[in-house]
Design goal:
single chain; 322 residues; alpha/beta; 7-stranded mixed sheet
Length: 322
């Protein structure tokens, strides 16, 4: 299936990239009633970003008024450099810090896809809690809900249309990845999303959810968070490593979600929190990814090439183009 730009509500568009796995993310396009344009996230490779911009040009010829980054990971920020210099990049203050810390190292060591030409361009407009963009009479609210997936997670909310762009707080069909965020903070972020009562939810990866599907997805993600917490508490108390816990656990419905190796990384984060470390404590990336690779080999799930050597600020892998 090819990427598709779909209008999910008047003026609100979602750019969906199947299959939503590593580095294959969704983005958003919001058009104000005055014709002004804001993008929500970019994607990973030069080719994918140019395809995204070509799709946007099929909807509007207007230069984007702004680009919002929901967090710092390369699949959401590696296209920032393609924005005109006059177009500000907006993100949480910690998103800027982590984009600069990560640089392009992930692309240099994760050589699966052809990244083409990419450059580092961090957000140049930052905020700490909330920020509202006004596109004519249409308001686009940005709310910091992290730490959850990362420490800089932001959701983009259209209250009039009741459309929510969640970034990677929500994965539809894949296991959430919390190793750079917080297992304890993740349910709080989901509660913030639920309180908004969105009618349309555009996840960071996977298909759009509408109506009752939104509630079902949030229920599933909350259940997954409880599952991680329970496994972590039991394993931590028993002195078992995250990899030992995952290898020895009973099969659950979550094992059928994409990227089941993420559970190992999530347990590493949970263990850090159970040890009393501050929420933003950096985990040892080679250890986390080494365990994920070991588990992935047992499960015969394709892992990104080179994922064992990763910058702590941007550990996301890259699956080859299909």
């Amino acid at each position: 299936m090819k990427p598709e730009l779909v209008e999910v509500a008047p003026g609100a568009h979602a750019y969906i990239q199947p299959d939503g796995s590593w580095m294959i993310n969704n983005t958003g396009l919001v058009v104000g009633d005055d014709g002004s344009v804001v993008l929500v996230d970019m994607t990973s490779t030069e080719a994918r970003n140019r395809a995204l911009l070509a799709a946007v040009e099929g909807v509007t010829a207007r230069r984007p008024r702004a680009l919002v980054n929901t967090h710092h990971h390369g699949d959401h920020t590696y296209g920032n450099w393609l924005m005109p210099a006059q177009t500000p990049i907006i993100g949480h203050v910690k998103c800027r810090e982590d984009v600069l810390a990560a640089g392009l190292l992930a692309a240099q060591v994760l050589t699966g896809p052809d990244y083409g030409h990419i450059e580092v361009r961090p957000p140049d407009v930052t905020f700490t809690d909330s920020l509202t963009l006004h596109l004519g009479e249409r308001a686009l609210e940005l709310h910091h809900v992290g730490p959850a997936h990362t420490r800089s997670d932001v959701v983009a909310w259209l209250p009039e249309q009741r459309v929510l762009y969640t970034g990677d707080i929500a994965f539809a069909g894949g296991q959430p990845f919390l190793a750079e965020g917080s297992v304890a903070g993740y349910p709080k972020a989901l509660a913030r999303i639920r309180a908004l009562e969105p009618e349309v939810l555009v996840p960071g990866h996977g298909p759009v959810r509408r109506g009752d599907e939104v509630t079902a997805l949030l229920d599933d993600l909350e259940a997954y968070a409880r599952h991680v917490d329970e496994l972590a508490r039991e394993g931590h108390a028993a002195g078992r490593t995250p990899l030992e816990v995952v290898r020895g656990k009973k099969e659950t419905r979550f094992d059928r979600w994409q990227e089941s190796e993420r559970l190992v990384g999530n347990l590493h984060r949970a263990y850090s929190e159970l040890d009393g470390n501050p929420l933003e404590t950096r985990l040892e990336p080679i250890k986390v990814w080494g365990d994920m690779i070991d588990y992935n080999g047992d499960r015969s799930i394709a892992m990104p090439e080179g994922a064992g050597v990763v910058h702590p600020a941007d550990p996301l892998g890259a699956r080859p183009d299909r």
